[in-house]
Sequence to fold (303 residues):
Amino acid sequence: MKPKNLILLLLIIVFAVAVYFALFREIKREVDEVSTSISGIVEAAPGLGSQNVNIVRTDRLVLLLVDPQTKQIMALKTESPFSTPQNFRIGKINARIGENLTGSYHLVAITDKDGEIFNVTPGEAYGRIENPVPMGSEGVNLEFTQAFKGGIYNDGTLSPAAQADPRPPAAGPRTQGPSAGPLMGGGGGDPAKMIQGTIVVADELKDRISPRDHLYIMLFDPDGTRPVSIKKIPHIYLPFNFSIGIPSEGQPSSSGKYLLRVLTDKDNSPFNSVEGEVVGRSSEPIALGTSNLVFTLDQPYVK
Fold:
């Protein structure tokens, strides 16, 4: 065989091998994604409009995976714009940092009109599959069946989530609205049951912050890996005055102290990091009742 033909043959072989491995990796990725997620279609049940529910394209679809035992949110995903029926997928990529989703979870859907998931706004809808759904399930049919009343299980027992004015302040740090929602805010407004202060960002990371980013404030039990309280601020204007406590139904830590984590979110998936997001983590647990805390976002957020 001529050298020229031999070189051409080798190039064809190399190309074929490269294509094979690329296809193999893609197939494996798709198989892994299916096995660690739940997918299907979400739609509105007939007659939902009679419950004063109004689903419009500007609504945001919020999907939650909830542990049926602990009632904690294990994964969160939002999609916008939204119209029914619509295909969905939620899974490991939307889970909290370090969480390996296995077993079955309650699948919850909420429509959001005001940028604050657990704030009840007229016209919002709620849907949940009654029985826990196993990871790896496909073709799941999830229906909006009720008007949203508040709470993970739509029982209305928890107060509306924190709201924040999306407009920048005239001067000084921006201040949040009231706290709440499942795992949201907490403390009941009692300063002795809350951590309060101001969130700032390190100078070298300021160019990563956009007013379109969301801000998530979380408390962790020092002996656990899951947040016991989460507060979301729809738009970021730093510095930002904050307060956060644990929900009334939450289990207090034995020490009364918590690790504080604050991060920015650009893709509506706070447990998945993307380029440009930043985070701050307390090096030591902070006691409830702490005030005038200056908390710095000082690291790129990398999951």
Notes: Residues 158-172, 174-184 have pLDDT under 50 and may be disordered. The first strand starts at residue 37 and ends at 44.
